[in-house]
Every structure is written in structure tokens, then in C-alpha cells.
Design a protein that fits this description.
mainly alpha
């Protein structure tokens, strides 16, 4: 009866792309990362994007509807990679991976995504398994980005 079980399990594993890749990891960052991100942001980003992340003279807003439409529902790696490969404008990739993770955490927090207890990783593969909520979220079901 279970003679073909190994073949069936192997086929299911192959069809799902493997269990490790198929599972999503909960998005989490810490308040400490947000503080680190704020310090890095003030030093490297505020000149273009503004002190409030959406009031700069040169940079696109990093919070609000347009930002969430662009990054909500996608993996955290997308945002991390954009930051890492394009910012700061004059010197992309010049910050540490941990600093880019802290900046990502700041942007998530500024878009009504609640901090957790686990730091946001700086590993792109781990970030790829974490999804940014499509509408942001808070402790309540309210979201400023959805009707």
C-alpha cells in the first residue's frame, strides 16, 4: 500500500518547489532597528527625501499610498535591494547590509507596520521569504492605506 509513497512525496516536493522555499516567514523588525535606521536616514537620506520621509525636495516619498502601492504585497527583499543598489544616490551600496536593513525597518515602521521582537535580517534570501503587507497594519485591523 505504501510502496509508492516515496515517489509521491518526491513528486509533491518537486511540484511545490520544496517546503523551505514555499513557506513564508513572518515580517519582523525591532524598535532598536528603527532607531538605527532613523540615525542612518538623518545622515544619508533626509537631504533628498525630507525629515518626515515624504517632504524632501529631490527624493520620492518613502511613506504613504504611493510607497505602499509600490512595495506592499511584495517581498521585503525588493525594498532592501532597491535601497542597496540605488541609495545613497551619489554612492549606492556604500552602507553596510545591516544599515540597509535598519533603513528598511524605518520605512516599514513609518508605513504603519508594527515592530516585533525579531530583527529584520540583512540576508537577501531571508528577506525574500518575508512579505510586506499590502496595506500596512497596526495592532487593530485599521490600515491607513485601504478603504
Amino acid at each position: 500500500m505504501f510502496k509508492n509513497f516515496g515517489y509521491v512525496a518526491t513528486a509533491l516536493f518537486a511540484l511545490t518547489g520544496g517546503l523551505a522555499r514555499a513557506q513564508e516567514v513572518a515580517l519582523s523588525f525591532t524598535a532598536a532597528q528603527v532607531e538605527q535606521g532613523r540615525a542612518a536616514y538623518d545622515a544619508s537620506c533626509a537631504t533628498c527625501h525630507g525629515v518626515n520621509l515624504d517632504d524632501g525636495p529631490l527624493g520620492a516619498p518613502l511613506k504613504g499610498d504611493a510607497f505602499m502601492r509600490k512595495y506592499g504585497g511584495k517581498s521585503a527583499r525588493v525594498l532592501f535591494d532597491v535601497l542597496r543598489t540605488t541609495m545613497p544616490t551619489g554612492s549606492p551600496g556604500s552602507l553596510s547590509a545591516e544599515t540597509y536593513a535598519a533603513l528598511t525597518a524605518l520605512m516599514l515602521q513609518q508605513n504603519a507596520i508594527v515592530a516585533g521582537e525579531t530583527p529584520l535580517p540583512a540576508d537577501p534570501q531571508l528577506l525574500a521569504a518575508m512579505q510586506v503587507p499590502a496595506g500596512g497594519f497596526s495592532f487593530m485591523s485599521f490600515s491607513p492605506y485601504t478603504a
